Amino acid sequence: MLLVSAVVGLYCLARLNENRRENETLASVIKQHQDEISRLKGEGEKVQQQLTPDQKAMLSAAHKLVDNKTFGWSRLFSDLESVLPGSVSASRVAVQNVYQDAGRVKAELELSVLSRDYPSVMAMLENMNNSRLFQAELRAQDFQQNERISYTEYTFRVVYTPGYGYAAAPAGDVAQNIPGGGQ
Question: What is the CATH number of domain 70-181?
C-alpha cells in the first residue's frame, strides 16, 4: 500500500510539474499576444491621427454599416433600381451616415447618376421622393463630354429609409429591360 501511495504521489508531482510548465508556456503566449495587441492599437492610433475629418466621418459611417445588420446593400440597390429610369445610370453611392430615427434605420447617401436626358433625371427625382423610401435633393450637375459622347453627372443628397418586408420589384422602365441598357 505504501508503494502504491508513493507511485500515486510521484504521478501527482509529475502532473503538477507538467501543469506548471504548460501554465508558464501559456502565460508567455498570452504576454506575446497582449504585446502584439498593444503594438497594433498604437499603429491604429497613428493611422487615425493621419486621417482627414472627411475620412474619419466616412470610416465612422462604414463602421456603422458593418455594425448595423439591419442595413442591406442588396435592398438599397434593388430599391434604387426600382426608381431609376432606363436612361439614367447610377455611377457612385457614398454612405455619409447611418442612424436610427424613431426605431427605423436611415442612411444619408451621396448619389451620383449619369444621363444625357434631363427630363429622365427629374422623373427619377420625382419617383424617389414619391417612393417613401428616398428623400432626394439635387446638389450639383456637371456636364461631361468626350469624342464619343456627352452626358451630365448629377449629384444628389439622399436619405434612404428601407421599407418593411421585401424589396420592391423593379419598375418596367429600368436599364436592364431596355436592349443595350439605354435609349
Answer: 3.30.70.60
